[in-house]
Amino acid sequence: MAAPGGARRQPLLLLLLELAGLMHGASAVFVVQDGNKTACIMANFSADFLTNYITKTGPKNVTFSLPPNAKVLNTSSCGKENASNPSLVIAFGGGHTLNLTFARNATRYSVQLMSFVYDLSDTQIFPSAISNETKSDESITDIMADINKKYRCVSSNQIHMKNVTVTFHNATIQAYLSNDSFSKEETRCMQDGPSPTVSPTTPHHSTSPPHPSPPHPSPPHPSPPHPSPSPVPEIPSSYTYTVSGTNGTCLLARMGLQLNVTYKKKDNTTMTRVFNINPNKTHVNGHCAPQQVTLDLQSESSTSLFFLFGMNASSSHFFLQEIQLNMTLPDAKDPTFKATNNSLRALQATMGNSYKCNAEEQIWVTEAFSVNIFQVQIQAFQVEGDKFGSVEECQLDENNMLIPIAVGGALAGLVLIVLIAYLIGRKRSHAGYQTI
Ligand SMILES: *[C@@H]1O[C@H](CO)[C@@H](O)[C@H](O)[C@H]1NC(C)=O
Ligand SMILES: *[C@@H]1O[C@H](CO)[C@@H](O)[C@H](O)[C@H]1NC(C)=O
Ligand SMILES: *[C@@H]1O[C@H](CO)[C@@H](O)[C@H](O)[C@H]1NC(C)=O
Ligand SMILES: *[C@@H]1O[C@H](CO)[C@@H](O)[C@H](O)[C@H]1NC(C)=O
Ligand SMILES: *[C@@H]1O[C@H](CO)[C@@H](O)[C@H](O)[C@H]1NC(C)=O
Ligand SMILES: *[C@@H]1O[C@H](CO)[C@@H](O)[C@H](O)[C@H]1NC(C)=O
Ligand SMILES: *[C@@H]1O[C@H](CO)[C@@H](O)[C@H](O)[C@H]1NC(C)=O
Ligand SMILES: *[C@@H]1O[C@H](CO)[C@@H](O)[C@H](O)[C@H]1NC(C)=O
Ligand SMILES: *[C@@H]1O[C@H](CO)[C@@H](O)[C@H](O)[C@H]1NC(C)=O
Ligand SMILES: *[C@@H]1O[C@H](CO)[C@@H](O)[C@H](O)[C@H]1NC(C)=O
Ligand SMILES: *[C@@H]1O[C@H](CO)[C@@H](O)[C@H](O)[C@H]1NC(C)=O
Ligand SMILES: *[C@@H]1O[C@H](CO)[C@@H](O)[C@H](O)[C@H]1NC(C)=O
After folding, report:
1. Buried-most residue among 4, 148, 295, 382 (CB within 10 A)?
2. For the region Disordered, what residue ranges are annotated (predicted)?
3. What pTM was computed for the model?
């Protein structure tokens, strides 16, 4: 009589496990193996799909998630060198397949192409669809990582195809595996930006993968209104921005840029976030005028950062006079964040010279916004031969140089004192006592 009880308990357990899986967003590990049962692709993610299809009453949008029972098809492949690419093909529901095709070069690999084939005759997902055809859509992706590192993206990453948007969450993907498991080292996606610990949720209003990535809205759980800690971000990558006009180059600026914004979230909590400017994803514009030089940085997302350099003709100095920022913060109470200050006096040097600072400089624009500048060397207005002129080092660097000098001096003094003490001691001992 023990058997029926056990038989009943098992489905219940499965159901519980399934529910737990659903609550975790139903992520799954997908593995593609070669003929020797060695894994060449591993992937762990949850995915949501947004599609438009035609019903009798007109077009309809439908969203659905990759179900927990999605399977890797054996049409997946590890690829053949120079002949075919590795691909991960996942099937689910009534004949839908997601196909991730990888490509690599010496240093990096990427999901070069992603295609989604969906069958409109699946009435569970596409109720009252007019057509029962199979449709297919595809797109390139920005999923990319270093060879022998896993791609890691906690944030949502949306891949926009023509009629389908695929949103990945909490993704770990690696192809060209070398030892049958995910590497320890990872390449973070751009969406995670400088603060990868932000919870992953779907930003339905954000479009293509941007950098600096706009923060993704947090789940609507209540939290007390206190400032949230912001994890320490990476140092922004340095880039040489140039602005030229009819008289040649009027701005040469090598620097790494980081934005530090503080804002109120929808639940009234205060949030401080830092965003690195990724020069690879930024449009650079600017203007040369006799009295003004501007630098305009537009990132793929709706972030625009504007610098204006002014000059003092009588003292023959240039300096950073104005910073403007317009950006979108999807989780902010007021998603349009604007800050401007046109009475700055930073990064100042004599005309024809360049201002240089190895130390990080924080320039306050407003109470809620500062720009952190890393490893800056900058010269505005007169730039001879597109090269930096004589260097004027910032105060911070000079102070930093004083420390080793002071320490060195102190050490030298100490050595001297010990030496003198020793000499005196020796003399005394010669005078007073007999040494053995
Ligand atoms: C299987 O392993 C053998 C020996 O390591 C190798 O020669 C062969 O190419 C492998 N086959 C595949 C499909 O990877
Ligand atoms: C479907 O979604 C798109 C954008 O995602 C929107 O422009 C369109 O109006 C939506 N259509 C319907 C019928 O809801
Ligand atoms: C997946 O996509 C690649 C590239 O388009 C293609 O070569 C391959 O045949 C596709 N696999 C399947 C099973 O559709
Ligand atoms: C590999 O591809 C990446 C991204 O497309 C590119 O930045 C890099 O320069 C390439 N490396 C080589 C060695 O071709
Ligand atoms: C759906 O497909 C079946 C065959 O698979 C076909 O007989 C039928 O006419 C199709 N229906 C429509 C509405 O196209
Ligand atoms: C996208 O949808 C429209 C109408 O909904 C359709 O006419 C078009 O063929 C679809 N495109 C693709 C690539 O499926
Ligand atoms: C993200 O995925 C990892 C496994 O890759 C899992 O341990 C973790 O719980 C997931 N986090 C969320 C928030 O789903
Ligand atoms: C950002 O600004 C806040 C004050 O608003 C400050 O406490 C924090 O240290 C700054 N973070 C960085 C990385 O500059
Ligand atoms: C946030 O604060 C405003 C004004 O102080 C108040 O009206 C609003 O209800 C608060 N919202 C939440 C979600 O607490
Ligand atoms: C920008 O691109 C260069 C060369 O393509 C690459 O070396 C660098 O890592 C990229 N920087 C970022 C932040 O992606
Ligand atoms: C370019 O040089 C000419 C002559 O030196 C000067 O008159 C003019 O204002 C300069 N233009 C700019 C944009 O600096
Ligand atoms: C920011 O937006 C304002 C309008 O609200 C506009 O005048 C200004 O030029 C914008 N600044 C930047 C840097 O895009």
Report:
1. 295
2. 184-239
3. 0.48
